[in-house]
Amino acid sequence: MTVSWEELGWERLADGVGRCRLPGWDCTAGLVLGADAALMVDTGSSLAEGARLREAARRLTGRRVTHLALTHPHFDHVFGAAAFPDAEVYGAVGTDALFAPGGQGREALRADAVAEGLDARPAREAAEALVAVRHEVRGEHWLGLGGGRRVLLADVGPGHTGQDLAVLVPGSPDVLFCGDLVEESGEPQAGPDAVPACWPAALDRLLRLGGDDALYVPGHGAVVDAAFVRAQRDALAARFGVSR
Fold first, then answer.
1. Closest CA to 165 of 64, 66, 39
2. What is the C-alpha separation between 178 and 187, in angstroms, rounded?
3. What separation in angstroms does the CA of 97 have from each of 81, 163, 178, 238?
4. DSSP character for 27?
5. In whole angstroms, what is the distance from residue 91 CA to residue 39 CA?
6. Terminal-to-terminal C-alpha distance of the chain
7. SS3 of 69, please?
8. pLDDT digits (tens, 9 = 90+) for 123-145
């Protein structure tokens, strides 16, 4: 027996599209349902959190998640990915190299997770279990989920990181998952892997994808509109000294 978005504490955004705000880092995870497949957008900050997302999707649909889209390679968005062992995994070009076994990318993610407050053991377990990103998106890629539902995966970075992927779900309204290119609950965070000079242009690409009427889903915080994204683009340009 399936349940509603609201019964699970999720926010319904459009027909077959919802998201939740995970505890701790207030990170967004999204779910897009088609007739034949289900796409999870980001997977939380640990294997346990990923397992809870997997169970929520099962309760909503009675089916398993078939596809994952990882908006960018930060631990709070990707450390739950191994909880979906049979899913097809998508990320922006360059993501898979960061997840390579024994590589510095895994160690950097583990160290960042611990520095941000994740216990050492789950951080290590999640880093060691990171999945291969078999489908790297360069430019744009349409993904069919059945029943006429198609989503657009777009490599819109660099900006927040060198590998920023947006997920556009056409509908009424259009829904655009932005990852941490957009943040509502605080000032956008620019770590050592950010590319500040390119970040405002990445937001311009988001605005072209979503247009004036889309719902823009940030990586952290409440859903926003195009005006908010424009204001954040201008603020970032001023913050980083990027001429427009």
1. 39
2. 15
3. 16, 11, 22, 32
4. B
5. 13
6. 53
7. strand
8. 999 999 999 999 999 999 999 99
Cα dist from 43 to 35, 68, 70, 83, whole Å = 22, 8, 8, 8
Structure token pair of residue 135: 């489908």
Instruction: Give me the sign of the Cα torsion angle 31, 29, 123, 101.
Output: positive
CA quadruple 11, 16, 17, 21: dihedral positive or negative?
positive
Q: Are 46 and 76 in contact (CB under 8 A)?
A: no
Distance CA 92, CA 71 (A): 8
**How far, in Å, CA of 137 to CA of 155, rounded?**
6
Amino acid residing at 150: R
SS3 content of the chain, % helix, strand, coil (to 5): 35, 25, 40
Residue type, 112: D
- Reported as a single tens digit per residue, the pLDDT across 44-101 is 999 999 999 999 999 998 989 999 999 999 999 999 999 999 999 999 999 999 999 9
